[in-house]
From TrEMBL:
Entry keyword annotation includes Kinase: no
Gene Ontology BP term (one): tRNA modification
Site feature location: Interaction with substrate tRNA: T99, R127
Name of the protein described by the UniProt record: tRNA dimethylallyltransferase
Top-level EC class as recorded in UniProt: transferase
Gene3D superfamilies reported in the protein's UniProt record: 1.10.20.140, P-loop containing nucleotide triphosphate hydrolases (3.40.50.300)
Residues annotated as binding substrate: T10, A11, S12, G13, K14, S15
Gene behind the chain: miaA
GO molecular function: ATP binding; tRNA dimethylallyltransferase activity
Transmembrane annotation, as ranges: none
Family per record: Belongs to the IPP transferase family.
Taxonomic lineage of the native organism: Bacteria, Pseudomonadati, Pseudomonadota, Alphaproteobacteria, Parvularculales
């Protein structure tokens, strides 16, 4: 086993588990959470504390400005380079996060779709706004009939299909038929930290309340002051919309916190479903201790 991958839904305790495993295996932690990369929201995204980072080297946390968009492919390339460097220094990469597509890109390989300039994504969003969902969907199906399988309300995937077909001249469905290109070939020990549903719900509620006490409201206020596009990924972080309404005087703090906790529960449900479907072969553990034992015992290897 050269490296460890820990997946799990929000509030599962995977960051703490990664710290323990990294300490035991002389490892360094690499982030695989799409929101924890942004530098503006360390509190709201539950990023590792300064104390944690002083104990173990952490990479790809709070290092990207909010106006940037990261794809699974960009993450996989950056993370693979970091893992190579960590291995070259005689240590082990401990990759941890809840963004399943990013983990899958790292472990299974990248789509051969070439890098696409951000201007195409902006053009797709503008076209959606101009045409509306129904006519935009018709345009997507003209470009790529296989996208008929997309749910009509799935804006993000329609935008992606339009962007890829327009930028590359090749439908997304054709790109998807080409085998992915591995970015890193090492022996991974893999595991999913999956506490029971009630534990996740309780932790989510307590954690968000603690975030507010620690200054999450100030983070959101500073983010809003930058007047970034609402289409950017950072603006979709759980808590941004809800606390924005509190700051605008539309909701009370209690209403905002309640709505954010509900949004967190929905996120946890989506993540849980995704991991159960996509990583069904990975061993699941209900506690950090059980996960540590499973990974340390050599289970979960590919």
């Amino acid at each position: 086993m050269e490296g460890v991958i820990i997946a799990g839904p929000t509030a599962s305790g995977k960051s703490a588990a990664a710290l323990e495993i990294a300490a035991a295996l002389d490892g360094e932690i690499v982030n695989a959470d799409a929101m924890q990369i942004y530098r503006e929201l360390p509190i709201l995204t539950a990023s590792p504390s300064a104390v944690d980072r002083a104990q173990i080297p952490h990479h790809l946390y709070n290092c990207v400005p909010g106006e940037e968009r990261w794809s699974a492919g960009l993450f996989a390339r950056k993370a693979a380079a970091l893992c190579d460097d960590i291995l070259a220094r005689g240590r082990r990469p401990i990759v941890v996060g809840g963004t399943g597509l990013w983990l899958k890109a790292l472990t299974d390989g990248l789509s051969p779709i070439p890098p696409i300039d951000d201007s195409y994504g902006r053009a797709a969003a503008a076209r959606w706004a101009q045409l509306g969902p129904e006519d935009f969907r018709r345009e997507v199906l003209n470009l790529d009939p296989a996208m008929e399988a997309l749910a009509p309300a799935d804006r993000q995937r329609h935008l992606r299909a339009w962007t890829v077909a327009t930028a590359t001249g090749t439908p997304l469905s054709e790109w998807q038929r080409v085998p992915p290109t591995p970015v890193l070939t090492i022996e991974w020990a893999r595991g999913v930290l999956m506490p029971d549903r009630e534990t996740l719900r309780t932790r989510s509620a307590h954690r968000f309340a603690a975030m507010v006490e620690r200054g999450a409201m100030g983070e959101v206020a500073a983010l809003l002051a930058r007047d970034l596009s609402l289409s950017l990924p950072i603006m979709k972080a759980v808590g941004v919309r809800e606390l924005s309404k509190v700051l605008a005087g539309e909701w009370s703090l209690e209403e905002g916190v309640s709505a954010a906790v509900t949004a967190t529960h929905r996120l946890v449900k989506r993540q849980t479903t995704w991991f159960n479907n996509q990583f069904s072969a990975w061993p699941q553990s209900a506690s950090a201790n059980a996960l540590n034992e499973a990974l340390g015992g050599g289970q979960g290897r590919r």
